[in-house]
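Input/output pair, single chain:
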Amino acid sequence: MKVAGSTYDELVALRSKTVFERAKLAAASGDRSRLDMTAAHVLSLLERFPALYREAWVTPSNKASRFACDGFEISDGWAGLVDRLSARLSADPSCHVWQLKEKFGRLAVYFDDDESVPRDPRLDAEMETALDEAADESMRTCEVCGEPGTRDKRGYLVGVRCGPCEQLDEISATCKSIAERLEGMDLAAFAASEFVQDAIRMELLCLGHAAACQPPASRARLPGIGWERLEQFKEARAIKGIPVEELWRFASEEALVLGRKLR
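Output:
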């Protein structure tokens, strides 16, 4: 689970807390990234499988496990399959999770075995089967929402997305591109540059088509976004008619807010 914080000092303070403490704070604040596992899912897993995830109560340090430092390094779409996997893995009391993350669009789990507990070869075989089945399921499950997805290379990274969530990533990337195009500009400079205005209008066209691809379930997961307005941008005629001042306001203000909501 990623850690939220508005300042460097806040980030340092949060990083010094255990995974369990961070999850409790996130649950109380309701603050999360679209790409995080929800605090409710994190706390449910920790409550039901405390031995398997015992590192969640270890204070992070250079010698601590990756799980103690970063917790569940996956998005919420894989919470269900991790829940089912945890139920199977917890049958072996000798193991606990040292790291759990997405790696090349596939669920990867690493353990630190307790050598003081006798091993059962039968359980070892069952654990290997459970891990393989969960990894196979992850490669066809959207990391973000849990719907059927496709594992593919996107930019420099490999991930699993369904169509709507891939379009949300596109909206987020477009908002970042808009911010980069406006860097160092004010309204006067923007109004004087037809080239930048046309570039922003093309970005809005991309936003509109991506928004139009969002089904009701996807929109319900992100209720704070004006989907109907964004969808209007798919019409080139509507974009051309936007006054320069309104275009500037959306690009310099609303696009930044939209980008933050989709991180």
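The chain has a mean pLDDT of 89. The longest helix spans residues 163-181.
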